[in-house]
Amino acid sequence: MLEKNTFVVKEQVKLLSSKKEYDILDAESGQPLGKAASKVSGLWAVLGLVLGKDKAPMTVEVREKQDDSLVFSVRRRGFLFKKIEALDAHGQVIGSYKAKLFSIKGGFNVSDKDGKPFCEIKGKLFKADYTFWTPDGKAEMGKVSKKWDGLAKALFTSADTYVVQVNPDFAEQPVIKMLVLGAAIAIDTLFVKAGKASGGGGGGDDD
């Protein structure tokens, strides 16, 4: 999966299910690359029904289509003070995501495994229209959009389908691909789509 630079993330619509599942496709060919699915422990699943699904710790696993092997995961942990992290296939933290607390325009910061600034996310986050920038704001690392002119254009049959692109300049850096793709999935599953984020403070759409 990570040898690709452009992905289509397409939500699977399942009635009467709180579980989030996505197909991850090759944006050029439309061929399946893998899937992403949320997991919540039994006790937290029950509490989530009472307190709200954004309150419960959750993990979203991203797996290869070919052999169902784990590629990486994103998780929300904590209750009062939530933290959202990306982990590699071995369970090692490779980065974390945090909504900007005091920003009029909103946005997210991404930190590396040591907590140092890795990139900044700007744009209309909850409308799947945003861009990843290096901390100095000089280089685009990737972007998420609902517009795509490639062969997979016909795949956009619902509002919950979007394309994730990694800048070819970073094609040989799998950690960047995991953090970019992981951010798109985290924003869609682990943060609240109601004008503010649940994982570390408010975050809205850019003007």
Global shape: globular
Counting H and I runs of at least 4 residues, what is the number of helices? 2
Tell me the series of helices and strands, N- to C-terminal. EEEHEEEEEEEEEH
The level of helicity is 10-25%
Strand arrangement within the widest β-sheet reads: 1-2-3-4-5-6-7-8-9-10-11-12
Fraction of residues in β-strands: 35-45%
Q: Please give the alpha-carbon distance between the first and last residues.
A: 34 Å
Largest sheet: 12 strands, antiparallel, barrel
From the alpha carbons, calculate the radius of gyration and give it in angstroms: 16 Å
SSE-based structural type:
mainly beta
Indicate the mean pLDDT: 80
Annotation, overall tally of beta strands: 12
Which ranges are low-confidence, i.e. pLDDT below 50, for 5 or more consecutive residues? 193-207
Protein name: Scramblase
InterPro entries: LOR_sf (IPR038595), Scramblase (IPR005552), Tubby-like_C (IPR025659)
Pfam families: Scramblase
GO molecular function: phospholipid scramblase activity
Overview features:
207 residues; 12 strands
Explain what this protein looks like in three dimensions:
One of its GO terms (molecular function) is phospholipid scramblase activity. This is Scramblase. With 207 residues, the protein is mainly β. It has a domain at 6-93 and 142-189. It has 2 helices and 12 strands, in the order βββαβββββββββα. Strand 7 and strand 8 (108-112) form a beta hairpin. The chain starts with 5 loop residues before the first strand and ends in an 18-residue tail after the last helix.
